[in-house]
Write a structure and sequence with these properties.
Strand content of chain A: under 5%
Oligomer: heterodimer
Strand order of the largest sheet of chain B: 2-1-3-10-4
Distance between the termini of chain A: 19 Å
Distance between the termini of chain B: 71 Å
Shape of chain A: flat
Largest sheet of chain B: 5 strands, mixed
Number of helices of chain B: 18
Helix content of chain B: 40-55%
Order of helices and strands of chain A: HHHHHHHHHHHHHH
């Protein structure tokens, strides 16, 4: 039924289009132009330039020594730098932790707020609030919460455990620093995933639940056999978005740990910014950005494959 | 309708255009950093300067301390360099080499130039052409502050001058004794709380390496491998690692003022001269100022601070120089700087500061400047030198292998120099 309708409507639309083909084309081009110009200027061109810069020894600010073409030297150096691999490994570690933490939290709150609770919309707003709070502000506040040895988190832990748990150096201990950033990041950003899940939940037709009820399915079975399959594309989308966001981890690191202690929170973006702006090696930093781009591209391609498999 | 809106827009923007009023006045832009106290003091100096020179308008551009170099780079790329800029002394070589600053001698009052201390001249001089590019009212140093009560409790020897500074053995023995003393949570605060991305690490810990008999880079060949990763440096960093491991050092996340915090949890403090004002306010007579210990055959201490320069692109170099001269001579500014325990870079300022005069509580800091001060490497690769060293120190303090960390830092520094063809004319016999 649905298919038939759509084909018939396209054929209706296509007929006049063929008649004014040229005018239509011009119209489309004119409508596309502003977006294309902006995209080219601010996205495609800088991107091509960064490819070019990655193969030079371009400094951040003009210098008396000539800028040379160094081919793949920057890339070779990056791959030889242990710190880069540490940064990549850290980002992978961060991603590995943040996905269950952030998506799990988002999924749980979305399920909760999908119920017919009193003040449901107010609650949704409250849970979404951290996501629209600036990360910088969140970091400054959490920096105080994390304080060692007398910060609120340590006080609470000490109180709850009756003094059995020693104060944790959340941001100063290489064992803990990344985990602390995961906690903070998950809390700050889960609101976005929550909204996506809520939209996904609302997209599941009530009839399916009614039918399941008539078939005698209990709450758990309804959740497992109706909700979960209905959310499959949402799950994939959330997973991929979270992964890509996780690879761009920077603000929290820049404000709270500056890559330390012992490089345990060094990330690819932080590594790039350090090379470009502190050490003034723009060519080198561009090469890092190209590598990051390739990584994110690969993730995006996997995303497309997954989405296709789940028929979205 | 649309046309009328357009015209009103054009008209209103024309009315508020800056050229409408700025025509009669000369504007100089001054880029600076500083804590709120100093920022306010600069503002007041500018008001007085404008009152004395009614045809000049001083415009301040504030760039926060932590991102100062980044902000400066942005100004360079946007071709919007200010006329006057404050800069951190070790970055001077990089700025001059890149061609941003102009020699300042012809622009500054002669009596001020004659008034400069040796260390002040050294920090403002570019080693290649030996010309002066910047100067300041102040200089800086790091000393060892001690809590008198605690030091008496362990029977520590109190050095009276730089020459009889503690040796490495004495220092470590005292740290150990202090660590067992009641009331002492950490024997020493080395101000790790300043973070791992500030100049503090190279500034304050670099001299420990120099005192131990090595350096960040060979200052003749301008090569770091073989110097920064030498046994002496590895040993010095391993020593500091041991202090941290033993729990003798205030951890980074515990904040920066544990020496004079309530209850005095730290017994010693390896702190800048600026710590004195705050510490003396809370600890009164319970504070002793000691020279930095000798970790090898000789002592070493840092110097250098934020100094004033005139950029090459300045269209009003004379007025810029006049402003700097005015600032450094300003009585009220000097009084404020002295109240912040400002470290003298001018002889006349030293005479006005009882803190640093012979017999004054900070006299040892001033003595260090003439006897043991070692400037940070005056080389255009300094941004990379300091960044690489900071990362190495962070590695080592958190349990990394000192040899490995220093080797990779040295390699990074030499690569940067190589990338810039040796920063000519550095490296050829200089």
């Amino acid at each position: 039924m649905v298919m038939q309708q759509s084909t018939s409507s396209t054929s209706v639309r296509k007929a006049p289009a063929r008649r004014h083909n040229k005018g239509r084309l011009m119209q489309e081009a004119a409508m596309l132009a502003p977006a294309m110009i902006l995209l080219t200027l601010f996205l495609i061109l800088p991107f091509l330039l960064s490819f070019w810069t990655a193969m030079t020894n371009q400094p951040l600010v003009p210098r008396p020594t000539p800028v040379r073409f160094v081919w793949f030297n920057n890339f070779i150096r990056i791959f030889q730098d242990d710190l880069f691999w540490t940064a990549l490994w850290n980002v992978a570690r961060f991603t590995f932790w943040i996905i269950p933490a952030q998506c799990g939290l988002a999924f749980a709150t979305a399920l909760l707020l999908h119920q017919k609770l009193p003040f449901r919309n107010l609650l949704r707003g409250m849970f979404f609030l951290p996501a629209i709070t600036s990360m910088v502000v969140v970091c400054v506040i959490w920096g105080t919460l994390f304080q060692y040895p007398t910060g609120p988190f340590n006080q609470i832990l000490g109180f709850l455990s009756g003094g059995a748990i020693q104060p944790i150096d959340w941001l100063g201990d290489p064992q803990w620093a990344m985990f602390s950033l995961v906690l903070l990041s998950a809390w700050q950003a889960y609101g976005f995933q929550m909204i996506v899940y809520l939209a996904g939940l609302q997209g599941i037709p009530d009839e399916l639940y009614d039918a399941a009820k008539i078939d005698g399915a209990n709450a758990f079975r309804r959740f497992w056999h109706v909700t979960m399959p209905g959310l499959r594309p949402t799950h994939v989308f959330v997973l991929v978005i979270t992964t890509i966001q996780a690879f761009k981890l920077y603000t929290q690191v820049a404000i709270l740990t500056q890559g330390g202690p012992k490089s345990s929170t060094e990330t690819v973006v932080h590594y790039m910014v350090r090379a470009g702006f502190e050490e003034q090696k723009m060519g080198y930093a561009s090469a890092v950005s190209v590598i990051l781009f390739v990584i994110v591209l690969v993730i995006a391609l996997i995303q497309r494959q997954l989405l296709r498999r789940f028929d979205v | 309708m649309g046309k009328r809106l357009l015209w009103s827009l054009i008209l209103s923007s024309a009315l508020t255009a800056p050229w409408a009023q700025a025509a009669e006045k000369t504007t100089i832009q001054v880029m600076h950093q500083g804590d709120p106290g100093f920022v306010a003091a600069y503002g007041k100096v500018a008001e007085r300067f404008e009152a004395a020179n009614p045809d000049v308008d001083v415009q301040f551009i504030y760039a926060p301390h932590d991102a100062y170099n980044e902000k400066f780079s942005a100004a360079v790329m946007a071709k919007q360099l200010p006329d006057v800029m404050e800069l951190d002394a070790p970055f001077l070589a990089n700025y001059v080499w890149s061609g941003y600053l102009q020699p300042i001698k012809p622009l500054i009052d002669k009596d001020l130039l004659d008034d400069m201390t040796e260390s002040n001249i050294a920090q403002g001089t570019y080693p290649i052409d030996k010309d002066l590019y910047a100067l300041g009212l102040t200089d800086s140093s790091v000393v060892l502050y001690g809590n008198k009560k605690y030091l008496e409790a362990i029977g520590a020897r109190i050095p009276k001058s730089v020459d009889d500074a503690w040796t490495r053995e004495e220092f470590e023995t005292y740290l150990e004794k202090l660590s067992k003393l009641d009331g002492v949570k950490w024997p020493i605060d080395t101000f790790r709380g300043y973070g791992i991305k500030t100049e503090w690490i190279t500034y304050a810990y670099g001299p420990i390496l120099q005192s131990a008999g090595c350096d960040l880079i060979d200052r003749k060949a301008w090569k770091s491998e073989g110097t920064l990763d030498s046994d002496a440096c590895v040993d010095a960093l391993a020593m500091m690692q041991k202090w941290v491991k033993n729990g003798w050092v205030v951890p980074q996340s515990a904040g920066t003022n544990q020496f004079f915090a309530e209850g005095n949890p730290a017994a010693l403090a390896l702190g800048g001269h600026w710590v004195y004002a705050e510490a003396a306010a809370t600890m009164k007579d319970n504070i002793v100022v000691l020279p930095l210990p000798k970790f090898g055959a000789k002592g070493a201490s840092p110097n250098g601070t934020w100094i004033w320069a005139v950029t090459k692109t300045s269209t009003h170099p004379e007025i810029s120089g006049k402003f700097i001269s005015f600032l450094l001579k300003d009585k009220e500014f000097r009084t404020f700087a002295a109240s912040q325990s400002g470290y003298p870079g001018l002889k006349s300022f030293a005479a006005e500061s009882p803190l640093y005069a012979t017999g004054g509580p900070m006299a040892i800091a001033f003595e260090q400047a003439s006897k043991t001060a070692v400037a940070r490497p005056p080389h255009p690769a300094y941004p990379t030198i300091t960044s690489a060293f900071m990362q190495a120190v962070d590695q080592v303090f958190n349990g990394g292998d000192p040899k490995e960390a220093l080797t990779s830092a040295a390699k990074k520094i030499d690569q940067d120099i190589e990338d810039n063809d040796g920063y000519p004319p550095f490296g050829d016999g200089q």
